[in-house]
Specification:
Elements (H helix, E strand, L loop, with lengths): L22 E6 L4 E8 L4 E9 L2 H20 L18 E3 L5 E3 L6 H20 L2 E7 L5 H5 L18 H8 L14 E5 L13 E5 H7 L4 H4 L4 H11 L4 H18 L5 E4 L1 H10 L6 H6 L17 E5 L9 E2 L5 E2 L15 E6 L6 E6 L2 E3 L4 E5 L11 E5 L3 E6 L4 E5 L11
Parallel strand pairs: 1-6, 3-10, 6-9
Antiparallel strand pairs: 1-2, 2-3, 4-5, 7-8, 10-19, 11-12, 13-14, 13-18, 15-16, 16-17
């Protein structure tokens, strides 16, 4: 076995008669989760699938914490630390073209946005290393934030803003989590409804929600306050969610073309498609809605029949490679605790190991990811399995000697498996 995630084996002898079929990587980029699917175009078989969870928000929070701490340190009566952003140039990452030349994109992205592109490209390169990939498909979603706020915008009004072209219904499905805003019904036909009736309200997206047929008929043209008078919690939740920020749409807008340029630099033919086509392909084949199944339905290259029921999709979570910070700090910016020590064993945070505990409260066999390491006590903390009582994960410590072997070295990701969804059809 070469790798456990993705599971890869090495054959001991070659088979020249077996010619591998060409495969296509399909990508459904998202702000929080990106779907991957490797499809055989000739047979429609989904060979491999995964959902990659990004850590862009964590990166943003870490940068804001560092900025506030440095700002506080400059303003206190301590050693002066001058700002250093005035002598730094912001340029895009270098890209290796198919001819072997290094090109500079020149477009700078925030670290939280650049992270989304880098992790996607990491997995594209990994899959190309293990599979005969001949083509790539990417869903190029277009979010028009101005049209979201005002669907009637047109002409020169766009000179006051940025993007153009947006599928309003698809945005509402993502915003309201594909469920009725009034009763929370799922897996049913949803309709677009005005929270405040059209005769007194506006056509802004903040005044639109999804409604099942029953709630839409009961509400008619009444105000939402009158319709949900006996459900004050639902009313408060509806009003808060209606004015949700557009940061997820902005993140996808900012990275879609940079990701496309990076994919083209691999030298493979890249197919682009809209989110509406992805939904049409999924609805025609009566495939349920998930990120990895959306990826399998991207583009006009989608086979007429997709065989996805046998796949065990991988759940990938970007964890990072730790912090370079030598010592932790408190909320005031002062050091606390001890500096990082020298590791005394071969295990690292993020390694997937097998531990055998012979006696005690936690006796048994465990296969899990190392959560933290205490080098001074040479002890390791591993999350306990979720109990049937529904309690949160607990951590417990045990001697390193109980670790029998290391299954998978840390590579900056956490791994698990997703459950296969049932076949269903959701429409709007």
């Amino acid at each position: 076995m070469l790798r456990r995630y993705p599971f890869t084996i090495i054959l001991k002898q070659s088979y020249p008669a077996a010619i591998p079929r060409p495969l296509r990587i399909k990508i459904d980029p998202g702000s929080k989760t990106t779907g991957f699917a490797v499809v055989t175009e000739a047979t429609g078989e989904v060979v491999w699938a995964a959902e990659l969870q990004h850590r862009g928000q964590l990166i943003k929070n870490a940068l804001e914490t560092r900025r506030s701490l440095r700002s506080g340190r400059r303003n206190r009566k301590t050693r002066y630390r001058p700002p250093r952003w005035s002598n730094r140039k912001r340029t895009g990452p270098p890209v290796l073209s198919s001819a072997g030349e290094v090109n500079q994109l020149g477009k700078w992205l925030a670290p939280s946005l650049q992270h989304r592109i880098e992790v996607i490209m990491t997995w594209v390169h990994r899959l190309r290393r293990y599979l005969p990939i001949t083509a790539i498909s990417q869903e190029l979603v277009r979010f028009d934030t101005q049209k979201i706020q005002n669907p009637e915008i047109s002409g020169v009004e766009y000179q006051q803003g940025t993007l153009y072209g947006y599928e309003l219904r698809e945005y509402l499905l993502e915003k309201w989590h594909r469920q009725c805003g009034y009763c929370g019904a799922k897996n049913t036909r949803l309709e677009v409804d005005h929270i405040v009736a059209r005769k007194t309200g506006s056509h802004r997206v903040s005044n639109l929600t999804l409604s099942c047929r029953d709630c839409n008929v009961k509400k008619t043209n009444r105000s939402v306050g009158e319709f949900l008078a006996d459900k004050p919690e639902v009313l408060d939740k509806l009003k808060k969610q209606a004015k949700a920020p557009l940061k997820d749409a902005a993140a996808v807008n900012s990275t879609r073309y940079s990701l496309l340029e990076r994919l083209k630099a691999t030298g493979l033919p890249v197919e682009i498609a809209s989110g509406g086509l992805t939904k049409f392909n999924r609805s025609e084949r009566q495939i349920p809605k998930t990120h990895w199944l959306d990826a399998a339905c991207v583009g006009t290259s989608t086979p007429e029949f997709l065989h996805w029921q046998h796949v065990r999709p991988l759940a990938i979570k970007a964890m990072g490679h730790g912090k370079r910070q030598v010592v932790n700090i408190d909320s005031f910016g002062f050091p606390k605790g001890k500096p990082k020590g020298i590791p005394v064993h071969s295990f690292r945070t993020g390694d997937i190991i097998r531990a055998e505990i012979p006696i005690g409260k936690y006796a048994g066999s465990y296969v899990d990811r190392i959560a933290s390491i205490r080098t001074d006590q040479t002890r390791v903390a591993i999350p306990e399995k979720i109990q049937e009582t529904g309690k949160k994960k607990a951590t417990f410590l045990f001697q390193t000697k109980y670790i029998t072997n290391k299954i998978f070295s840390a590579d900056g990701y956490d791994y698990g498996f997703l459950k296969l969804p049932e076949r269903q059809s959701t429409a709007i």
